[in-house]
Design a protein that fits this description.
The complex is a heterodimer.
Chain A lengths: L1 E3 L7 H11 L3 E6 L7 H8 L8 E3 L4 H5 L2 H16 L3 E6 L1 H6 L3 H7 L6 E3 L9 H16 L18 E5 L8 H15 L2 E6 L5 H5 L6 E4 L2 H15 L3 E2 L6 H15 L14 H6 L10 E6 L1 H14 L3 E7 L5 H10 L4 E3 L3 H11 L3 E4 L1 H10 L3 E3 L18 H13 L5 H9 L30 E3 L3 H4 L23 E2 L1 H8 L3 H17 L4 E2 L1 H11 L2
Parallel strand pairs in A: 2-3, 2-4, 4-5, 6-7, 6-8, 8-9, 10-11, 10-13, 11-12, 13-14, 16-17
Helix pairs in contact in A: 1-7, 4-6, 7-10, 8-17, 15-16, 20-22, 21-22
Chain B lengths: L2 H5 L4 E3 L4 E5 L11 H7 L3 E7 L1 H10 L2 E3 L5 E5 L2 H4 L5 H15 L5 E6 L1 H5 L4 H12 L4 E6 L9 H10 L13 E5 L4 H14 L4 E4 L14 E5 L5 H9 L3 E2 L7 H15 L4 H26 L3 E4 L6 H12 L2 E7 L4 H10 L5 E6 L1 H11 L3 E4 L1 H9 L4 E3 L1 H5 L8 H17 L3
Parallel strand pairs in B: 2-14, 3-5, 3-6, 6-7, 8-9, 8-10, 10-11, 12-13, 12-15, 13-14, 15-16
Antiparallel strand pairs in B: 1-2
Helix pairs in contact in B: 8-10, 11-12, 11-13, 12-18, 13-14
The chains are: A alpha/beta, B alpha/beta.
Bound molecules: iron/sulfur cluster.
Chain lengths: 541, 428
C-alpha cells in the first residue's frame, strides 16, 4: 500500500476514456461501481466539453455482486450500443471491476453486437492514466488498422505529395488542441498532407487508413509511442519523434520531416512571425541569464522544455523530474546532458522537498508545482499535464511550433520580475512602495499576503470549477512574503536583521535561509552582519 | 434484438407509491466524497481511505481540493502485491497508521474508510480498527466505516461515518432530563445560530453529532431527542433510536417555513411556550422572509428539475415550491429515505414526479423533453445540459455552502436565482 494524497495521474481507465472521448464513433463501456462516474466531470468542467464523455458505466452495487453482475454488464453494453450507435465499443473493468473477474470482453462479445468490440486490458493496480491511454490507442490501432505488406514500403509515386499521420492528441491533453493547429501549419508549409490525426477527431474508419501514410508524427509519446512502434513494424512507417517545442526543436522537427519525406525543408523555415530569438537577445532579457530553473511534468514536455530553458532563454537548469516512469530511461539520458540528478517520482511531496531544497528562481511544472511554488514563494509557469481549467485558455496558446515558442517566452517570463524593475527595486528598496510584500508590478495589485498557516491543511472552495485538479484559481503568480520562520537555535543580531532588510525582498528569503544554514553548519548561535556577508561570500550570491 | 437487449428494458419501475425507481448508470459520487466536508468539521480527525488509485483520483477531482502542508485525509492505495497476497493487508495498515500517528500526534480520531476494492477483497477494517484501538486508543480513537460506491452514494458516506460513531457515544447521565441531539454536519456558523436559538427558547442541553472535536462525542440516552439536520442520516438515527433515543419528525430547516417547523418540533418536545417560541424565532423568520422576498420574483412560476445527488433534493424542492413559488417537475434522489423526508414529501405539490436511483440517459431524455427553467444537477451533466439550452445549477454547491437556517435562506434562494439571472444578463 502506498499513502497517496494527490496523484499526477489517474487510473488507467481514465486514459481509455480520454482516447474514446477524443475520437468520433468510439464508445467505452466500463464495468465499474457507482462512484466511478466522477470521471465525467473532468471532461465537462476542465475541458468545458459541451457533450458528455464517450463512456457508460455499469454502476454495479453491493446487491449485484452476489447476483448477476455479468448480466448487468451485458445489459449496459447493449443499451450503450442502442443509445450511442458507436462504430466500435471498447470494454474494460475499472479497479473494482477487475476484482470481480467477470471478463467484460467475453460478456460484451456474447451480446452479439454488429460492430467490433475491443476489450482492453488495463491492470489498475500496476498502471496509470497515460499508460492506459497508450494501451487503449494501441488496441484500437492494432484492431482496426489492418495488416501491412511485408518488406519495405514501395516508393511514393512521382508527383504525389508525401503524407503523414499525426499521433497522440487526446482529450484533456495539455494544449493539444492548439499544438495540432501549429503542427498542421508546419506540415502544410512543407507540402506534407495529413492522412489521419488520431485519436483526436478520428473515427474508426480513419484508423483503417493509417497504413496509407508515408510516415508518422509522434506528437505526444506518452499516448502514441506504443501504437507508433506497432505501425513502424507493421507498415514500415518511419516515425518523426522530435517534439517541436521551442525554436531549435521546431527547426529540428522541420528538418526531420523533410528528411523522412524526402523533401525540401526551406518553405517551412519562414520565421517572420517568430519573436522568441529577438526577445531573448534584447537587452531587457539580460536579467534572465542564469536564472536557476527546476522542471517537472510528463517526460516529454520536461525534456523539451529543458532545452528551451537552457538554449533559448539562457536559464540554468538546476533540476528536472518526471512522473512518467515509462520514459525513465530517456529521461535519465536527458538529465545527464544538463548534469542534474533526475527525480523520477509520482509523489508530489518529494517534488516539494526538492523544490524547497533547491530554491530555484523559476519553476516550470504542473499545476501541482504551481501550487507548491506559490506556498514556497517561488515564481512558476505550467508546462505539462495534469490539466486544470486554466490550461484550456480561450485564446490560441500552443506550446509547439513558432507561435508556441512565442507563447513559451511570454508564459515563462511573466511570473518573473521584469529586468529594469528588478534594478529599481534594489535601488529603492527602502521606499515605502517597494515594501517586502510588493509583487511584480505587472501582476496587478496583488494584496500583501502572508504564507498560508501551516495548519491550514486543505481548503475547499465553494467554487469547484475554479479549483478542479488541485490548484488555486487566481492571484497566485506573485512571490509570497519573503520572511520565513527562523531556524531554531540560531538568532539574528538586530543589526544583521536590519542589514537583511536592505536586501531586495525577492531574494531576502533565500539570503535568510542560506545565512541560517551557514550559521547552523558552523555551530554559530548568533548571526551578525559579518555572518551575513560571510554566508553571501560562501554561497556566491 | 439480442436477448440482452430485451433484458435491457427492465431498468425502470413505477411503484404503487408513485415513485419512479430506476436502475442504470448513476452519475452520483460514492460515499468517499463525504470525507471532503467531514474532515473539515471534525478538526482533529484523520481519514485514511483504504482503496485504489481511482479512489485517490476521485478525492482530488470531485471537490476541487487544494492541498496545503499537512492534509488530514489520504488514500492507502492498494497495489499488485497487496492483491497477490504478498503483503498482508492488516500489517500494511498497522504500519501505515503507526507512521501516520507518529507524524501527527495531534490526531485524536482516525477513520479507516472502506472502499469498493477493500470491500471486494474483504479487508475487515472493523477488525483493524479494533486492533489499532488496543494499541493507540489511549490517544487516538480508531473507527472504521464504509464509503464504498457499492453501498453508499455521496452523502450516505456521512451517514455511514456517523453511524460508526454511535457505538462510541457516551451514555447520558442517568439523572439528566431531556436533551436534544442534532444529527448531521452543519457549518460551524449555522450550528452556532441554531445553538443560540435553542438556548433562547430554553431548550437544552443541545448536542451536535458530529462534534467539532473527537473528544467531545455527544452523550446519548433514553431521554435524548434526536433531530436530524440532514436528510441523509437515516442509519445513524436508527442506531440512536436503538440506544433509546426518540426521533423528532420535522421538515428540514431550509427557508423560513422549514426552519420554523424544524425548530418547532424541538420546542414542542421541550414544552416551550408558543409565545416564547414566537419571540425567539420571530426576528429570524422576518429576516428570512425579507431576504426571500427579494429573490422570489425571479423564481416564481419557474419549473425546476432535480437530478439525484445529495438527498437534499426533496426538502429543497419543498422549499422552492412553498416559499418561492417554483414548480418541481421531477425530483430525483439517489435514495429515498422515507422516514426522514416524509414531512417534506407531504408538503410537496401534486404533480411532481419523485424518482429514486437513476438511469442517467433516460433521465436526460426526460429532462430535455420537459424543458425546465432550471435544472439542478451534478458537474458531469451541467455543461452538456447548458449546451442543449437548459439553465443549470450545480448541486454540489448546495452541499458545500451554508444553506440551513433563517439567515442562510436568502443565500440558498440566491444559489437558484443566480444561473437564471446570468442567463438573462448575457448578450452573447
Ligand atoms: S466508487 Fe468505489 S472504487 Fe470508485 S472511487 Fe468510490 S470507493 Fe473508490
Amino acid at each position: 500500500m502506498q499513502l497517496t494524497v494527490w496523484t499526477y495521474e489517474g487510473p488507467p481507465h481514465m486514459g481509455a476514456i480520454r482516447v474514446a472521448t477524443a475520437m468520433e464513433g468510439v464508445h467505452c463501456v466500463l464495468h465499474a461501481p457507482v462512484g466511478d462516474t466522477y470521471a465525467d466531470l473532468l471532461f465537462t468542467m476542465i475541458e468545458r466539453r459541451a457533450g458528455r464523455p464517450a463512456v457508460t458505466y455499469s454502476s454495479f452495487q453491493a446487491r449485484d455482486m452476489g447476483g448477476d453482475s455479468g448480466g448487468l454488464f451485458k445489459r449496459t453494453v447493449a443499451e450503450a450500443y442502442e443509445r450511442f450507435r458507436p462504430q466500435v465499443i471498447l470494454v474494460a473493468p475499472t479497479c473494482t471491476g477487475e476484482l470481480l473477474q467477470d471478463d467484460p470482453g467475453g460478456l460484451a462479445r456474447a451480446v452479439g453486437l454488429p460492430i467490433p468490440v475491443i476489450p482492453l486490458s488495463l491492470p489498475s493496480y500496476q498502471r496509470k492514466e497515460n499508460w492506459g491511454a497508450a494501451e487503449t490507442f494501441y488496441a484500437l490501432v492494432r484492431g482496426l488498422a489492418g495488416r501491412g505488406q511485408p518488406g519495405p514500403r514501395p516508393p511514393r509515386p512521382e508527383g504525389q505529395a508525401p503524407s503523414c499521420n499525426i499521433l497522440g492528441p487526446v482529450s484533456l491533453g495539455f494544449r493539444h488542441r492548439d499544438d495540432l493547429v501549429e503542427v498542421r501549419r508546419l506540415l502544410d508549409l512543407l507540402g506534407v498532407t495529413v492522412n489521419v490525426v488520431a485519436p483526436l477527431g478520428a473515427s474508426p474508419a480513419d484508423l483503417t487508413r493509417l497504413g496509407a501514410a508515408d510516415f508518422n508524427v509522434v506528437l505526444y509519446p506518452e499516448v502514441a509511442d506504443t501504437a507508433a512502434r506497432w505501425l513502424e513494424r507493421t507498415f514500415s512507417q518511419p516515425s518523426v519523434r522530435v517534439m517541436p517545442i521551442g525554436v531549435g526543436a521546431t527547426r529540428d522537427f522541420v528538418a526531420e520531416v523533410a528528411r523522412v519525406a524526402g523533401i525540401d525543408p526551406v518553405p517551412a523555415l519562414d520565421e517572420s512571425t517568430l519573436r522568441l530569438p529577438w526577445y531573448s537577445r534584447s537587452v531587457d532579457s539580460t536579467y534572465l541569464t542564469g536564472k536557476r530553473v527546476f522542471l517537472f511534468g510528463d517526460a516529454s514536455h520536461v525534456i523539451a522544455a529543458a532545452r528551451v530553458a537552457q538554449d533559448e532563454m539562457g536559464f540554468n537548469v538546476v533540476g528536472m523530474g518526471t512522473y512518467s516512469r515509462e520514459f525513465g530511461r530517456e529521461f535519465r539520458q536527458a538529465a545527464e546532458q544538463y548534469g542534474v540528478e533526475p527525480l523520477i517520482t509520482d509523489d508530489y511531496l518529494e517534488v516539494e522537498a526538492r523544490l524547497a531544497d533547491l530554491r530555484p528562481d523559476l519553476v516550470l511544472g504542473t499545476q501541482m508545482e504551481r501550487h507548491v511554488a506559490k506556498r514556497l514563494g517561488l515564481p512558476c509557469a505550467v508546462i505539462s499535464a495534469p490539466v486544470h481549467v486554466q490550461d484550456f485558455p480561450a485564446r490560441f496558446a500552443p506550446q509547439m511550433g513558432l507561435e508556441g515558442a512565442n507563447v513559451l517566452f511570454d508564459t515563462w517570463v511573466h511570473p518573473l520580475m521584469m529586468g529594469l524593475e528588478e534594478h529599481l527595486l534594489t535601488m529603492f528598496r527602502e521606499d515605502f512602495e517597494f515594501h517586502a510584500e510588493a509583487a511584480p508590478s505587472h501582476l496587478g495589485s496583488a494584496a500583501p499576503r502572508s504564507l498560508e498557516p501551516a495548519d491550514a491543511v486543505v481548503s475547499i472552495q465553494a467554487d469547484p470549477a475554479a479549483t478542479l485538479v488541485a490548484a488555486p484559481a487566481a492571484g497566485d503568480a506573485s512571490p509570497s512574503s519573503s520572511t520565513s520562520p527562523s531556524t531554531p537555535g540560531v538568532t539574528w543580531e538586530p543589526e544583521a536583521e536590519a542589514e537583511l532588510r536592505k536586501i531586495p525582498f525577492f531574494v531576502r528569503g533565500k539570503a535568510r535561509r542560506n545565512t541560517e544554514r551557514f550559521a547552523a553548519d558552523r555551530g554559530l548561535a548568533r548571526i551578525t552582519v559579518e555572518t551575513l556577508y560571510d554566508a553571501k561570500a560562501h554561497f556566491g550570491s | 434484438m439480442t436477448e440482452s437487449m430485451a433484458e435491457a428494458t427492465e431498468g425502470a419501475v413505477k411503484t404503487c407509491d408513485g415513485v419512479l425507481r430506476e436502475r442504470g448508470q448513476q452519475s452520483v459520487f460514492c460515499g468517499l466524497t463525504g470525507v471532503v466536508w467531514l474532515h473539515r468539521k471534525i478538526q482533529d480527525a484523520f481519514f485514511l481511505i483504504v482503496g485504489s488509485r481511482t479512489c485517490a483520483h476521485l478525492m482530488q477531482s470531485a471537490a476541487g481540493v487544494m492541498i496545503f502542508a499537512e492534509p488530514r485525509f489520504g488514500t492507502a492505495v492498494l497495489e499488485e502485491r497487496d492483491l497477490a497476497g504478498m503483503a498482508d493487508a492488516h500489517q500494511e495498515i498497522d504500519r501505515m497508521v503507526g507512521r501516520l500517528l507518529e507524524r501527527r500526534p495531534d490526531i485524536r480520531m482516525l477513520f479507516l474508510v472502506g472502499s469498493c476494492p477493500s470491500e471486494v477483497i474483504k479487508i475487515d477494517l472493523d477488525r483493524a480498527a479494533h486492533r489499532l484501538n488496543a494499541r493507540h486508543g489511549a490517544t487516538t480513537r480508531v473507527v472504521a466505516y464504509s464509503g464504498s460506491g457499492l453501498d453508499t452514494a455521496f452523502t450516505q458516506g456521512e451517514d455511514t461515518c456517523l453511524a460508526a460513531l454511535v457505538p462510541h457515544l457516551p451514555a447520558a447521565p442517568a439523572d439528566e432530563g431531556r436533551s436534544l441531539l442534532v444529527v448531521g454536519c452543519l457549518p460551524d456558523v449555522v450550528e452556532d445560530q441554531f445553538a443560540r436559538l435553542f438556548r433562547d427558547m430554553g431548550v437544552g442541553p443541545v448536542r451536535f453529532l458530529p462534534a467539532r472535536g473527537a473528544r467531545d462525542l455527544p452523550a446519548v440516552g433514553p431521554n435524548t431527542l434526536v433531530l436530524a439536520a440532514q436528510p441523509f442520516v437515516g442509519d445513524t438515527v436508527r442506531l440512536l433510536e436503538r440506544k433509546g433515543a426518540t426521533r423528532l419528525a420535522a421538515p428540514f430547516p431550509f427557508g423560513a417555513e422549514g426552519t420554523t417547523l424544524w425548530l418547532k418540533a424541538a420546542a414542542d418536545a421541550f414544552g416551550v411556550d408558543p409565545q416564547r417560541f414566537e419571540a425567539v424565532t420571530g426576528p429570524g423568520q422576518a429576516r428570512a422572509r425579507q431576504a426571500l422576498g427579494r429573490v422570489r420574483e425571479s423564481l416564481d412560476g419557474k419549473r425546476v428539475f432535480f437530478f439525484p445527488d445529495s438527498q437534499l433534493e426533496i426538502p429543497l424542492a419543498r422549499f422552492l415550491s412553498r416559499e418561492l413559488g417554483m414548480i418541481p417537475v421531477e425530483v430525483g434522489t439517489p435514495y429515498l429515505n422515507r422516514q426522514l423526508v416524509e414531512p417534506d414529501l407531504a408538503l410537496l405539490p401534486e404533480g411532481a414526479l419523485i424518482s429514486e436511483g437513476q438511469d442517467v440517459d433516460r433521465q436526460m431524455d426526460r429532462c430535455l423533453a420537459a424543458k425546465p427553467d432550471l435544472t439542478v444537477c451534478g458537474l458531469g451533466l451541467a455543461n452538456p445540459l447548458e449546451a442543449q439550452g437548459l439553465t443549470t445549477k450545480w448541486s454540489i454547491e448546495l452541499v458545500f455552502s451554508p444553506v440551513h437556517g433563517y439567515d442562510q435562506a436568502g443565500d440558498l434562494a440566491g444559489l437558484f436565482a443566480r444561473p437564471l439571472a446570468r442567463r438573462a444578463l448575457l448578450k452573447v
